[in-house]
Amino acid sequence: MPIRRLYLARHGAADAFGELTDIGRRQAGLLGERLAGLPVDAVWHSPLPRAVASAHEIARHLPDVPVAEAAELADHVPYVPGAAETPASWAGFFDGYDDTEAASGRRLAEALVARFAKVPDPGTKGTRPDVNEVLVTHAYPIAWLVRHAMDAPPSRWLGLNSANTALTVIEYRRGLPPTIVMFNDMSHLPPGLRWTGFPAGIRP
């Protein structure tokens, strides 16, 4: 039974201008070391510079694995919840989103799922049936893919966040619901490099 495995990672730590920092490069390199040796077929990345740089840092440890941009991985709000769905802690966050922007984000989220959240096509004779892809993206797209895999209500993406270069793995098999193998795993990072990307007040 062919399996698609998505290795989802948020980009490394970035500065206020969205550029990868030295810490972010080290985080991405450590993730690359963790992924080295796995049968990775491709590394896909968001168009934004912090994700591009992270993907290429990861790919240094994955010789001959192609690296390419996927527009669906761009940072975006996948679903703007209604007032009744919005937790108090998110009050005001969506005030600037008009209907056009909300619809655009939803279309991008649908395209993300359509492209990556599916069982691989049957392989031709002589090729490896499983597909293993690394997706270097942002917290919101990761949250959306996890929410989709759990078949949770659309607004539940709000309750999920990922640390910089933390690893989330989802598997897709025909006839079965998606499997969350791991979420937000940081075991490849030393303690001092963990939990970046989260507010300081909630870092353990």
Descriptive notes:
The chain is of the alpha/beta class and 204 residues long. The chain contains four helices and six strands. It has helices spanning 22-35, 49-59, 99-116, 139-149, and strands at 3-10, 42-45, 67-69, 131-137, 167-173, 179-185. Strands 3-2-4-1-5-6 form a six-stranded mixed beta sheet, sandwiched between helices. α1 (22-35) packs across α2. The longest helix is centred in the middle third of the chain and has 18 residues, at 99-116.
Question: Class by helix and strand content?
Answer: alpha/beta
Give the proportion of residues in helices.
25-40%
- Number of beta strands: 6
Basic shape: globular
Largest sheet: 6 strands, mixed
Biggest sheet: strand arrangement? 3-2-4-1-5-6
Question: How many angstroms does the end-to-end distance come to?
Answer: 40 Å
Radius of gyration: 17 Å
Per DSSP, the total helix count is 4
Strand content: 15-25%
Average pLDDT figure: 94
Low-confidence runs (pLDDT<50, min 5 residues)?
Answer: none
SSE pattern? EHEHEHEHEE
